[in-house]
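Researcher: Going back to the complex we discussed earlier. I've cleaned up the inputs and rechecked each line, so this should be the final set. Can you rerun the prediction on the complete assembly and write out the structure?
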Amino acid sequence: MSYIIVDGISKTFKVTKRNSGLKSALKSFFKREYVLIDAVKNISFEIEKGEIVGYIGPNGAGKSTTIKMLSGILLPTAGNIKVNGMNPFADRRKYVSNIGVVFGQRSQLAWDIPAEDTFDLLKDIYKLSDEKYEKNKSELVNLLDIGEIIKKPVRSLSLGQRMRCEIAASLLHDPKILFLDEPTIGLDAKSKKIVRDFILKINKERKVTVILTTHDMMDIDKLAKRIILIGKGQILYDGSLEKLKTKYGSYKKITINTKENISDIKLKGIISKEKIDNGYSFVIDSNIITISKFINYLSNRYSINDMDIDNEGIDDVILKLYQDYEI
Amino acid sequence: MKAYFNYFKLRVITNLQYRAAALAGISTQFFFGITYIMLYLALYESNTSANVPMDLQSLVTYLWLQQSFFALIYPFLKDQDLLKMIKNGNLAYELIRPQSFYFKFYIKMISERLVAASLRCLPIIIVGLLLPSPYKLGLPASVESFLLFIVSLSLSCLLVSALSMIIHIITLFTIDSRGIISGYSVIAEVFMGAVIPLPFFPNFLIKIGNYLPFRFIGDFPYRVYSGSISVIEGRNLLFGSISWLIIAIIVGYLISKVALKKAVIQGG
Amino acid sequence: MFFESIKMNIKSQLEYKSSFIINSISQFFIFFTFYFMIIALFQKFNNIRGFTVYEVLLCFSIIQFGFAFTETFFRGIDRFEDLIIDGRLDRYLVRPRGILFQTLCSEIDLVKIFRIIQALIIMVIALIKLDITWNILKVMVLIFMMIASILIFFGLFVLTASYCFITVQGLEVKNLLTDGGKNLAQYPISIYRKGVVFVFTFIIPYGFINYYPLLYFLGKTNNILYLFSPFMVLLFLIPCLLSFKIGLKHYNSVGS
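Model: Rerun complete. Updated structure for the full complex:
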């Protein structure tokens, strides 16, 4: 049996309907109308112990709602969740001792005092023994390189430093599952790297199952072997990242440096054409039209100074995916 | 001018969304009205021979009006947008806008009070008028008293908003606004008669109160309504009200200029 | 854990030393005004339904004490809407401790300690002026009243927090229950008319903590039952805590 089983969960919210204008504002003052919104519709998936799963989708797709249901904050309107044989709601306290949650945009650290003080409080909250706490803390501090940082007031830390402390705080009680809600949002390149390396490491060494939502496709590329794509509350894709890449991997990006105007090309397999600074940028599907044929076509008609051929980056792949599913 | 009007309209729409707040406000005010009246009834009934500064009917009317227009002249209505702007230094951006910073927020404050009060006052007034004696909200002493009441109450709203503006801007110059705000609120509440009506003050406090703007906000309109302040006296007091208003606007406007300058120098 | 979080809170607030001092001083002096206004009122009147100014002040200070105590040490529950809005509640939900307990631990408002001190000062003044013939039972009833006063506000705060679970709109209702109740109970409840007395004795038990025990304390009755009437507040806590539980369930299914 899988470690995490999500079976047909849905979540419906009731929202007040609002129209613009003074008249409708007055009207709704006396009589409110509500609409039902399905944040998540009949989602099912299973996750094995020790997996890292990237949970992606555009804003408002239902990512956070799913994370909230998985972490026991929100009760699904319909469907079941079983994690390690437990229902997140049946025994909240027992369940949450086994999970760690990082909300990227919200802090759990007390703002005016050093993070270490918050750690001490968490020790009490999770009823950790002195040895376990000290051992775990020093391990995390080393891995995340925050020995000095946790002694300074949190308000004086940079975003990256703070996020590293946040992550340490969420792992002090040695949870088996870690939920990361946009852990790298707003971080600089160095901090991102530290955070990613760290996630890989605890996944490997502690066998922590990681579920992360992100908008940064590099996170996915570096961390997750499997992605679940959600859009408009439904799962659109669930599978390996590699498969996605091969599916869209036939797409090549060709940049042409030319002074001439290239008019419409009447060839099949051209996905997009874009005018850039000193030339054009094309995306072609190499399964339909070979690169050499395409370049031949161009060089016969125009004078080309320089050119560049690229595989599409992960960002473009995902973007295309969004486009294909119209989300 | 049109920009200010649109701004006003926007505030009205925003505030209409807070229906629950209006209902809660009405019940709170009603509750306070009833309990205050009962308190004074008990005092009057226990001391039949006491030398009281107001007859019971005027006092009850005073208390009802106080509750009805609570939202209109509440001494300090926190403007989160403005406070936030002051705190994070975004004030400097206000310099690039075409409307005057001061008047934009001044209008906002007035409109918020007007909307809040207009949603709340009618139910309280109607119920107050229908209640049996001695709980009844009395009618105005005369047509002139009523007109004076309307004029002075409008001035109250303008004045209290102008004072609120000053307090908001002052917080820019201090490390922490809480002390100032609570200090101002308490002094204002006391001297506008919100804790106990001004006529019940000991003499020396009444004298102090005469030198402060607050009596024009919460005491004068309600007493002129019931005739506890005569029409002639009321007309004279209007000048006091207007003078304070002009002073408050000028002071607020000037310190807003200084505040903006400071915000620019600090670089936000 | 409670003390660990208090320690943390105090540390946080002392980070801003000067503003803390200014605030404390202003709190301390400004709120004397309200006591002063009662004294001023009693310059014009000499009693209210048989209670003298110092008897009223004693009643007032006990209620203020309970209110200030709750505001100081249980600020988290007082400002529960903030916990919901800024997402701290979600954080508490993913921790293996009771939500109410975590909420109580979340914040203390050190500045308001001065209001507690102030209430105690007024209480002492009133007690001196009242010329009480002390005995052990009177000490007991005074302590019962003080504890019950804390508990009734605690209950009310929990009740209003439960309301926040459903909506954070219309929180002004909160003032009706807490500020309004506080205002009302500053005077012995018997000064009000029947309906009000009934509601604020048998539904929200102000009467049981600020009137019946006060009668006993002031020697206006010798009925020993009145000594124990503050315990009625415990009955009141049951529905308050229950509604918090129900509210939490609602939050689980609806979210914010």
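Model: Worth noting: Chain B has a mean pLDDT of 87.
Researcher: Good, that matches what I expected from the previous run.
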